[in-house]
Write a structure and sequence with these properties.
Elements lengths: L1 E3 L2 H13 L4 E6 L5 H13 L2 E6 L19 H10 L4 E3 L3 H4 L17 H5 L3 H16 L3 E5 L3 H13 L5 E5 L19 H6 L1 H15 L5 H13 L4 E10 L12 E10 L2 E10 L1
Parallel strand pairs: 1-4, 2-3, 2-5, 3-4, 5-6
Antiparallel strand pairs: 7-8, 8-9
Bound molecules: adenosine monophosphate.
Length: 281
């Protein structure tokens, strides 16, 4: 497996692969790989001739008081893990390669970025949409792979690709969890043992919501209240949001009909975790 740091090098690698008749899969990541990322890479491996994984902690998607500086990084370990699942090349550009002096172009997806993580992290999806557009233009993949763990992000990218006529397939991969249910995240390493235990309330409360819906509950406010109460009962947890929207349209809903996204963001100390589930109304 190769590691390249410049746009010219990754373009040349992809050009050669295309000449050899290969289709190209792209898995964008911020690194510090875990089983969730590896699952995206395996899916890409199954479907594409070559697999490009990007490892880039994208500064434009972090707010001024967020964890950009301390975001965990370990390229050597990432390279070992990516090679094991059959990634052909890692694209790991320095910040100046992606945002050289004078940079001033951004991609704004409207409406579906106004709630949930879009509301609690102003500018976040603008940074995501911008870097993903750049990666698509650099790599020109046939398919790109995203995790359902970041459900709103996956919808934003799907919308953007459709709206801007980007000629590729967007594949969404189910959330990979720890054996005890915690959604895998690079940020889980921030949690101390007490917070790690407390964080189980996320998957636990989503499960309870699914059970309530199975038992016939259709009132969105009641489902939100149930989840909020369960999380408030955990003293180490501080709710950022618990929200329910139609899925995939992300419109407000009062009663469940069809699919809805129940998504939450909760802080444990300085660490903000997200999780979600699709409710079947
Ligand atoms: P990140 O490095 O956190 O930006 O994530 C890179 C990609 O991996 C995104 O498409 C995420 O949605 C996806 N991802 C992160 N965690 C998980 C997980 N637990 N299960 C599935 N996909 C994930």
């Amino acid at each position: 497996m190769k590691i390249v740091h410049t746009i010219a090098e990754i373009r040349e690698f992809v050009r050669q692969a295309r000449l050899a008749g290969c289709t190209v899969g792209l898995v964008p990541t911020m690194g510090y790989l875990h089983e969730g990322h590896l699952e995206l890479m395996r899916r890409a491996r199954e479907r594409c001739g070559i697999v490009v994984a990007s490892v880039f902690v994208n500064p434009t998607q972090f707010g001024p008081n967020e964890d950009l500086a301390r975001y965990p990084r370990d390229l050597e370990r990432d390279a070992r893990l990516a090679a094991e699942v059959g990634v052909d090349v890692i694209f790991n550009p320095p910040v100046e390669e992606m945002y050289p002096p004078g940079y001033c172009t951004y991609v704004d997806v409207e409406r579906i970025t106004e709630n949930m993580c879009g509301a609690s992290r102003p500018g976040h999806f603008r940074g995501v949409a911008t870097v993903v557009t750049k990666l698509f233009n650099i790599v020109r993949p046939d398919a790109a792979f995203f995790g359902q763990k970041d459900a709103q992000q996956a919808l934003v990218i799907r919308r953007m690709a459709a709206d801007l006529n980007m000629d590729l397939e967007i594949v969404t991969v189910p959330t990979v969890r720890e054996p005890d249910g915690l959604a895998m995240s690079s940020r889980n390493v921030y949690l101390d043992p007490e917070q790690r235990r407390a964080a189980l309330v996320l998957a636990g409360s989503l499960d309870r919501a699914v059970e309530a819906v199975r038992a016939g509950e259709r009132d969105v406010l009641q489902i939100r209240r149930l989840v909020e109460e369960l999380i408030r009962a955990e003293p180490l947890a501080r709710i950022d949001y618990v929200e329910i929207y139609s899925y995939p349209g992300l419109e407000p809903v009062e009663r469940l009909q069809g699919q809805a996204l129940l998504a939450l963001a909760v802080k444990f100390g300085q660490t903000r975790l997200i999780d979600n589930v699709i409710l079947e109304g």
